[in-house]
Amino acid sequence: MIRTKVLVVGVGSRMRGDDMAGPFTIDLLKEKLGSGEVPDGFELELIDADVMPENFTKPMRESGADLILFIDAVDMGLEPGALRIVPRELIDATIPCSHNLPMSYVMGYVNEKVERVELLGVQIRTAGLFEDVTKEVREGCSRLAETIMSGKVLDIAVYSKDEKGSDDKATNYCW
Predict the structure, then answer these.
(1) Domain assignment present for 175
(2) Model confidence over 80-96: pLDDT tens digits?
(3) Is 143 exposed, middle or buried, given 0-12, 13-18 or 19+ CB atoms closer than 10 A?
(4) What CATH number is attached to the domain comprising 9?
(5) N or C: where does the chain have the smaller number of CB atoms within 10 Å of the terminal CB?
(6) Could you read off the pLDDT of 18-56 as tens digits, one per residue?
(7) Are 14 and 23 in contact (CB under 8 A)?
(8) 43: domain range?
(9) Strands in the chain per DSSP E
(10) 171, part of any domain
(11) Do the Cβ atoms of 35 and 142 come closer than 8 Å?
(12) CA 111/CA 98 separation, integer angstroms
């Protein structure tokens, strides 16, 4: 059997409510792997990048992964906990951000060495300082972890601005 190597990178602050979506999903995946659940057909590696994924670009680029999945909290104007693959061209590279470098830059840099790089957005409800992750986002992260373990993560719908009938501005995933 040919195996695909998948690297999942959780991005976000554990101190800002739903911004914890990426690291929280990494925690769920670690639990599953620790309990002996092994994804069928692929090798899974995990990185909790906190709010600075740019600090992990060297191991990402040298990982030998066929696919890198960034998981981050995103404000897409959807129901809290909704999951979408967010196209890189919809990520605004100019807005102030909790990350030192915009995700679109990090993704582009990593994509020079890794064939496929995707951002999996989890719709937030709140990202207030010292808040806990909301029930809806916990449930969304749980669905996302299950979907990753099933190998069907790329079946998640791709985000489109038409979903909320908004303008063509890039998605704001920072606060």
Answers:
(1) no
(2) 999 999 998 888 644 43
(3) middle
(4) 3.40.50.1450
(5) N
(6) 999 999 999 999 999 988 887 778 899 999 999 999 999
(7) yes
(8) 4-163
(9) 4-11, 42-50, 67-74, 83-86, 116-123
(10) no
(11) no
(12) 22
* 43's tokens: 């090798």
User: Residues 6 or more apart from 104 whose CB is under 8 A from it?
Assistant: 88, 91, 92, 93
Closest CA to 77 of 172, 175, 174: 172
**For residues 88, 93, 95 and 101, what is the CA-based torsion angle, rounded to 10 degrees?**
110
Predicted TM-score (pTM) above 0.85: yes
Q: What gap in Å lies between CA 44 and CA 31, rounded to an integer? A: 13
The amino acid at residue 112 is: E
Number of domains in the chain: 1
Give domain status of residue 142, yes or no. Answer: yes
CB-CB contact of 149 with 29 (8 Å): yes
Tokens of 171: 């998605």
CA atoms within 13 A on the CB side of 47: 23
CA neighbor of 109 nearest in space, from 64, 155, 60: 60
96 found inside a domain = yes
Element (H, E) at 168: none
